[in-house]
Amino acid sequence: MEDFINTTQPMSVINIGADFFADAIEDQGVSVTRVSWRPPAGNTVALATLLADPQVDEANKVAAERMLAAHPVLIDVQPAREVIPALQARKLLHAGPPINWERMCGPMRGAVIGACLYEDWAKDEHEAIQLAESGAIDFEPCHHFNVVGPMAGITSPSMPLYVLEDQTHGNRTFSTLNEGLGKVLRYGAYSPDVLERLRWMQDVLGPALARAIRQMGGVDVRAIMAQALQMGDECHNRNKAASSLFARQVGPALAETGNSSAETAVVLRFIAGNDHFHLNAGMAAAKAITLAGANVPRSSVVVTMARNGVDFGIRVSGLGDRWFVGPAQVVQGLYFAGYGPEDANLDIGDSAITETSGVGAFAMAGAPAIVQFIGGTPADALRYTNEMYALTVTSNPLFGIPSLDFRGTPTGIDIRQVCRLNMPPVINTGIAHRLPGIGQIGAGIVYPPMECFEEALEALAEVEAG
Amino acid sequence: MEDFINTTQPMSVINIGADFFADAIEDQGVSVTRVSWRPPAGNTVALATLLADPQVDEANKVAAERMLAAHPVLIDVQPAREVIPALQARKLLHAGPPINWERMCGPMRGAVIGACLYEDWAKDEHEAIQLAESGAIDFEPCHHFNVVGPMAGITSPSMPLYVLEDQTHGNRTFSTLNEGLGKVLRYGAYSPDVLERLRWMQDVLGPALARAIRQMGGVDVRAIMAQALQMGDECHNRNKAASSLFARQVGPALAETGNSSAETAVVLRFIAGNDHFHLNAGMAAAKAITLAGANVPRSSVVVTMARNGVDFGIRVSGLGDRWFVGPAQVVQGLYFAGYGPEDANLDIGDSAITETSGVGAFAMAGAPAIVQFIGGTPADALRYTNEMYALTVTSNPLFGIPSLDFRGTPTGIDIRQVCRLNMPPVINTGIAHRLPGIGQIGAGIVYPPMECFEEALEALAEVEAG
Asked: Does A248 contact B at CB distance below 8 Å?
């Protein structure tokens, strides 16, 4: 038997939490095992109350079951004004929590200018800015209409929208069609080629997809995502498999219902030319999944995470339509040649709905090749997914990751765990130039500000108490 | 300090090689670390000579460099008789090493019967068998004409063939087009629907793909494989990503050059309906890669592994066109509902060219989802790839596996290492029913017989000595 302290053997130290103690011990040549630990975030009384309340667990179970049961299917493509009656007025939808023209960032302003030109509300940039400044345009978050828009997310009345229907719960969700990379409206570009492409999408691509999708009786977007997650996509910043599966699936119907072989070829070439074509449909599916989990009284599950380039906002199942907002953060990632952090806008877009639904960065273990695009190593990709199991209330068996022995992706972020562990959920994202009209300049990893979760936690505790 | 043998501590034993010693020790409650080791296979003098010869290493380096430099591009689709002049006679090509009608297995006989009906050489099964028995059909391996055929591999004059050209070395390689799953000629089925499909492939699919591929200026099959290996395919028994990428790539040109929208839709639907559609093009690319490494004097690199359902044959770079043959083995795997090992044919097909070129089972680390089809666990998939680095002379940087930190797939099987480690290369494969006319009944893992490698080793040592 050895004594508890054996001075003839080297000392081993375990350090929990802040690193300065470990650093000091290591400087003296002693081996230190570092255990990551941070004190809980926010109101610890509220946290303790909510963690101890079995009703919250029950509510989260209901929310999670609804999320896993959601079955979003793409059933149509329609002009936005046809499916969102509010867009019959002079209204623009935007990404993230509510924001007015005065506070909008560069890329969102650029996209607003582009939308005014595209809708013929203004004849040039100057007029568009005047219009926006005049207050004659009504701005509202996409999320308020169950729409999701990547990056600036500007959705105007004439744009064709994917219409998804949740076959289980009957909800409808929507998103624009993906314009491709380079100079595109969602990154704030509004040059004539950008507007020309948007008009072609309105006149040709949208109607062609509508005919094909109706003839097919719908496209099972959830099934495409489930397959893509076994094919190296995480369905946020890697959509190569999903886009290929989608092109392969709709190709025959596009040919069969096309106006002409020449037009079908152009449509197929547009779809085939974009590795991210499926992103927007996947986002609308993610919105359907999270929407299914919304409005469960007492539930602490996050059902929206969205950014407008200035603010980051979340909404929580048990707290209805209320936004909890903090400052949008700087994205850490890889920049395209010629750009750097000083050119970058803050985190922007509704695409974090993917993480909210259990894919995106939460599914990166299945998408190790993405590190070539957003930075890091395949080991980091694995770690991101593994860490998210600690924050979530369930895993989605339909979204099994082969390299994790087909374990489902972590699903349903619990604000209690985010605060308890003081660990915000991870998001991967594209980086927009901070000036309008330039476009994407990189991609990387970003975290929400903790205050969103802390404030939501207090609000939920108040509802409990109330 | 402790004594070397400390009888107060538990004993730890390391066991190298045969397990019976380890088993006996473990039965006494002692912990045993098992080190896998087998004595070398074959002629150890030949092995020692060849392992010590730097000229073999040099030759293997040349063979490997040529394999890695091969750049197969799909440039056309043509009737077999147009690109293989020998097929203007009454000749059928078959998978694997040479075999005559008398020794052929059930599925290969079924495919021969089907080919005779398809080519109108016989009006029924009975006549076809008579014709084959009469010796009036000349049988020769696909490989003798740089053709590769999955399963039975029967290639007849009228069948459309992919024509691939190695842009680096100028070689041309060929394969038939994939018929889909279920009742198909390559598994020995020859019912009227099978023949009707083959005729449609001849009249419609082949010409449509030919027009599209020519208009595109070729399809870079190596690039498709490189992408697919990052998307969960291993390019032998999982081809979902490659097939999707191929469909997405040729879709626009198929529409543009199609005879009619209706015909294009049927062609696209046929391609889209088959997760293995790309297999045959990938096999022809694998043939181009291995062909580039062939005929390097003194090289011990394997350039062909192929099975006819009775015999397994290999060819080695430094030994020219000579086949080294052993008995085809039983496949270990998963069976479709209603079938079992007693129904299975022995290992069959030219598709082991994928492993020979460094993909297939050699790339399974990147395709963990394949275990749902062939059995085992994702950890097995990783292990197969890792083990093959010990048998191969290089790795292919174009075929990087994300989960291995983008390490290239193990490439260029060295018969010296196979014999030294007494470890045959791993192959994954479909399982054919042993009777003609039924089709695929499962998929699994199989190994070549060691005697192929042992005999080739002796032959190479003789060439050295001579």
From this structure: yes
